[in-house]
Amino acid sequence: MNTIRSLQLMQYGGPDTVRIADLPAPVAGPAQVLVRVHAAGVNALDWKLREGYVKDAFPLPLPAVLGIELAGVVEQVGSDVSLFKVGDRVMGPLGGLGAYADLVAVDADKLAVLPEGLSMVQAAALPVAAVSAWQSLHLAGPLKAGQRILIHGAAGAVGGFAVQFAHQAGAHVSATALGSHADYVHGLGADHVIDYQTSQFEALVSDIDLVLDYVGGDTLARSWSVLAEDGVIVSTASPAILASTPAGRRGLWFMNQPDAARLADIARQVAAGRLQSQVAAVVPFEDLPAAIERSRTLPQMGKTVVDFLR
Ligand SMILES: NC(=O)c1ccc[n+]([C@@H]2O[C@H](COP(=O)([O-])OP(=O)(O)OC[C@H]3O[C@@H](n4cnc5c(N)ncnc54)[C@H](OP(=O)(O)O)[C@@H]3O)[C@@H](O)[C@H]2O)c1
């Protein structure tokens, strides 16, 4: 039997509850392609799943293979798939779990072809973070030039793209980040960067039309006071926003939706140098359990990517 490496969550808990283990190689279903994974993005969802924080929203039969996005080469094509052929370089979100494995069967409609000049590592950083940034920025309605936007977690994987998209749209962008990340966030297009460790953002900004909350918790709770009267908060981090939005205010919970066309467009912009994609660290497969833990505990600018070929 052909076996492959995978990273599995054995039970909810700390770093030692994830383990590298062999699995039988999968085959592509009729609407799927089988991808030989070259790189996969590490997401905050990995440690949230591991800890069991989101087990009600994402109930998992354990053990479960973690990982939600990948880049690799098509090795087999399902009978109903005409969009891809063996040998294509593809990237995408799974719309579920299982990307931390050498071979993954993926729904073909979630995948996009890598543009010329984009590496597998660069590609694996895009499907969740960049598309979530775009979708969350536009969730509350069309953007207007001059709109005042506050982005929490601006140095993170999602935040870094959101700052750039908001700046491109002509918004006035305020952003919160660690002071040591301020130059990076300014460089992405933020007009005003607030060090969340030394300053209270609510003392420094007001009349905000749109808050993008990529942090949650207390940061979300304190953000209602900075909103303009008809302002809105979109949170990717706290589903509690649905129950905690004060009467008369507008708060939206965001859930990423795979969008292959948007992903392809963003990837072309990155390959052409019009959009910056910050890869904070590239780690080998064996380092994944530790990398997931570091994404929970250490400050980071941008995205960690696991390189399966290292
Ligand atoms: N619902 C969905 O569909 C969806 C999709 C994608 C992501 N998400 C969620 O969205 C959030 C962001 O994702 P991500 O991939 O960008 O995570 P990330 O790369 O870990 O970024 C989070 C950023 O938040 C910053 N931060 C921490 N505490 C902060 C504070 N008090 N004020 C301002 N910034 C603070 C960190 O900055 P420093 O390093 O500067 O401390 C880090 O850069 C996560 O909770 C993730 O689970 C949800």
TrEMBL record:
Signal peptide: none
InterPro entries: ADH-like_N (IPR013154), ER (IPR020843), GroES-like_sf (IPR011032), NAD(P)-bd_dom_sf (IPR036291), YIM1/Zinc_Alcohol_DH_Fams (IPR050700)
Lineage per the UniProt record: Bacteria, Pseudomonadati, Pseudomonadota, Betaproteobacteria, Burkholderiales
Protein name, UniProt field: NADPH:quinone reductase-like Zn-dependent oxidoreductase
Chain segments annotated as transmembrane: none
Residues covered by the Enoyl reductase (ER) domain: 13-306
Domain of life (superkingdom): Bacteria
